[in-house]
Specification:
homodimer; TIM Barrel; Lyase, Ornithine Decarboxylase, Chain A, domain 1; 2 domains; eight-stranded parallel β-sheet; elongated
């Protein structure tokens, strides 16, 4: 497949290595891996997980749950607060597959109980310190109410948390500290409910990557790790060599006077997320493409982005090696958002990999 | 159409009013309006321009040019540097419609001349101070070479510039200053080429909105103005009442303890662009939805975004008026990027409006 425009390449071998490594780590912890598919959003990539024996998935929307149900996944957790307006869609899906929903308040449970009749497993979402959403361990009365389903078809099966506050440069020690706090929150909530058989579902990519052990966690739910990205490298979750996606971008202008190169590849391809390692925004790191992939160490940075333009700051050496029509690789800052922007992916073997399509949802 | 998930609503009346206002302004300046369609990317919205007698369009990619050619547009400018890798696609399109391409260097013209045989009109892209790309007025020799096509089918028809440095809070006086500098650059380049019949193509949304007159400009090329957004309001290009798009988002969690509301609507719906008016990032402004649209003045802000979650900071009053399952409206920060993320739009009358689909490109 000839690449003529911004195209997200997937290194299948690296992605599969990331999957196997995480699976092995979860298993050696006695835990199950229920990977988050919001990163790749692809039935084709989902097969790589299936090939390793993974049968349970996590998604971030009802639409994505339906997409993966259509692709044969029959045990799916929607790790996003139950949305009362989608009760009908939840009902339909729950009749087809084992559906696990996330409950963040007693009002949400009440609505689910009243408006969905199909069998549902539900998790109580615990706020372990990120303060995005979820119930605080101090909300004793509400936790008790959330544990008591009024609908006999709805079963509390576990506690679920996302430690979003690990999304910053971490050391093993700071990751351990967050983990200890999270486990304390889980224990408090379990005790309030009075059940010790609840599935403890946890696992952002930084925690699952940096820590060797997550004792007490029954289910790991990382997503980003399948691709990783330069943000995760910056957080110390991975090395550049682990990053399994790279945007191939055509060079369209070269500005020798300011050591800048303009590529076809902008905010609508990469997303506007950035890291700011030394006080300067970086929107991606440039690597050299070759027939069998890309160079591991970055050779330049993406310093500005507009809708379709990416501006690279490059060395004299790199500048003189490029011409318009050259292809460069860009390792994305945040692979989940970059992947979301694609219509499809292309493997290094040139195979088009399908993806959840918003227009069809 | 029942809205149950994040859905970008278009107020057709406001969009049409924005179109008519800009068209009238361009015409009263004796200029043509060649609107940039990268904002809406929709054949349905394109019809609203056609209804006003607009027959020429601007796009930002070859794929988008093909999409609008399929929708009946037969005079299209690709206002993005000519990409040598897409020569074949350019050739095909140029056989179907009047195609105008953007040339940023002599190497680009040389490649076009050698690899495309179909008739092409081309514009020389002038860097008027944004320093994204384009030729500097000081590059005399290269400008001369860029004006001389070696292919008799390729004709230099104009000079094109984008003053991206107007994308900040502007006054009429600062916008005038940028405009004067741009016109000076155009004059220098015209004199080097020795032609005074070249189309002067200009017109970012801030300049075209803030200034009453753009003397000397023959073709206005704004795009964002059809929808506007809170970034443009912040730049003084529009009022809140001019903003023609609003994301309807379901409330999924309410956190009274910290006056925060969580909606279904995150970075994959709104994009991660933000404004920072008082040193704090704002990812969108909240308005109240009603049957016939939304309230004009914002009532809260989106203060954080993750992939699917939006976090609103709200007053006690707003908080107490909401419950899970309520719908709130969010005026986007950057409507071009928000629109790009949608699979389709929905008009206030409940009509689904189609959109360029990356999966099909």
């Amino acid at each position: 497949m000839k690449i003529v425009k911004p195209t997200l390449l997937i290194d299948e071998q690296k992605a599969k290595r990331n999957i196997r490594k995480m699976l092995q780590k979860a298993r050696s912890n006695g835990a199950e891996l229920r990977p988050h598919f919001k990163t790749h959003q692809s039935a084709d990539v989902g097969e790589w997980f299936k090939d390793e024996g993974i049968t349970k998935a996590t998604v971030s929307s009802v639409d994505m749950a339906r997409y993966f149900a259509d692709a044969g996944w029959d045990d799916i957790t929607i790790a996003f607060p139950y949305n009362p307006l989608e009760a009908e869609e939840v009902e339909k899906l729950a009749k087809r597959v084992t559906l696990n929903v996330t409950i963040v308040s007693k009002m949400a449970l009440y609505h689910l109980n009243q408006h969905v009749s199909a069998p549902i497993n539900y998790y109580i979402k615990v706020d372990v310190g990120t303060h995005r959403t979820g119930i605080l361990p101090s909300q004793t009365e509400q936790i008790k109410e959330m544990s008591l389903s009024e609908n006999p078809n709805h079963h509390l099966v576990g506690l679920l948390a996302h430690a979003g506050h690990t999304y910053q440069p971490m050391t093993k020690s700071s990751a351990e500290k967050v983990f200890m706090q999270s486990m304390k929150a889980f224990r408090t909530v379990s005790e309030i409910i009075g059940r010790h058989d609840l599935i403890i579902s946890y696992g952002d990519t930084p925690s699952c990557s940096i820590l060797d052990d997550l004792p007490g966690v029954n289910e790991w739910r990382p997503g980003n790790f399948v691709f990783y990205d330069i943000m995760q490298e910056y957080f110390n979750s991975c090395t550049y060599d682990d990053i399994a996606v790279c945007m191939a971008c055509p060079v369209v202008a070269i500005h020798e006077d300011r050591n800048e190169v303009v590529v076809y590849g902008g905010g609508v391809h990469l997303s506007k997320d950035f890291i700011e390692p030394d006080g300067e925004r970086v929107y991606g790191k440039v690597v050299a493409l070759s027939d069998d992939g890309w160079s591991t160490e970055p050779i330049a940075s993406v310093v500005r982005l507009s809708q379709e333009h990416g501006i690279l700051r490059v060395s004299d050496e790199l500048l003189s090696s490029l011409e318009i029509g050259s292809l460069v690789g860009i390792l994305p800052v945040h692979s989940c958002l970059t992947a979301d922007l694609q219509g499809y992916y292309v493997s290094l073997a040139g195979r088009k990999l399908n993806k959840f399509n918003k227009a069809e949802a």
